[in-house]
Amino acid sequence: MQAFFGRRWSPSGLGPVGQGVMMAALGAIAFSGKAIVAKLMYKLGADAVSAVGLRMAMAFPLFLCMAWWSGRVAAPDGRSPRPLGARGWWQVAGLGFMGYYLASTLDFLGLQYISASLERAILYLNPTLVLLLSALWYRQRVSPAQILAVGLAYAGVAVVWLHDWDAAQLLSSQAGAVGGAEAMRAVTLGSVLVFGSALSYAIYLMGSGQLVQTLGSLRLVGHASCVACVLCLLQWGLVAWWTDGRLGGISALPWQAYALSVLNAVACTVLPVWLVMRGVQLLGASLAAQVGMVGPLSTIWMAAWWLCEPVTGRLMLGTAAILGGIVILTRAARAPSKADPTRATP
């Protein structure tokens, strides 16, 4: 286990920087695959409640192992792990609710209405939301370069949103349905839900800054994820009971849906958490975040390959604007005193 989680693991022929780049890139691509897997499950008859429920049910044992192992690893200050205490448990529970349960639920609900490319574009606004919330809550000064970066990123999302709207109208007209207002409502609803997911995760990031220095990233992610898993399972059971299985039902799902859930839990949830943590440890948060920009681009490619989503010049232009805004924002922001490995999109 120490060879797996610790610094002794090193791929042959790669130095620390090469390992960090590889892990940060793989983690970003794996996180992006979550939307593709969810979309494939929807085509097999799953809904958002059952998709997120199956994902968390299958990831729960792995997060329990992560939480258990984190209790055997020294804290960031070199001391033995300390008990959380009542206040610490409430903090972890709150962060688990905001950062993993609510963000995941809103994200999966939104994916029912918008493309995977637009979903990833909206989620990539996370650093801008953290900046805006910091300016509102902590009166943090925002520089002109940061304002430019935020404007560029949101303009890029608007361009990708228009691409999604046009694609939805085209599909509606091909299916013989009425386009226009109906397509716009669907894309708008999905965008609002995914934006709510990004906002929820931004609040988690702001709240986790001090706690991650005390507990360590592995311990915080392990415990917060376990809280989120329990909440998702409770939600799944309550919704299925309340709707008599119309929502959250899985009895009619084919075996491929369960296989996709295993893939989602392992390759798109638990494994990328570790990959991103290792990438940040080796590269630092700023450089790892820039490497992670491969995520939106990989989403476009995977969505075109697996979901047959159209790739247009407008989509690429909007994505480029978002990435450009995040690059400017990253360079304009002050480097944090310590890396925060929890800064990965769920």
Automatic annotation (TrEMBL):
It comes from Aquabacterium soli. It is found in: Cell membrane. Pfam families: EamA. One of its GO terms (cellular component) is plasma membrane. Residues 20-161, 189-330 form the EamA domain. The chain crosses the membrane at residues 21-42, 48-69, 89-115, 121-138, 145-163, 183-206, 218-243, 255-275, 287-307, 313-333. It comes from the Bacteria. It is a multi-pass membrane protein. This is DMT family transporter. Keywords: Cell membrane, Membrane, Transmembrane, Transmembrane helix.
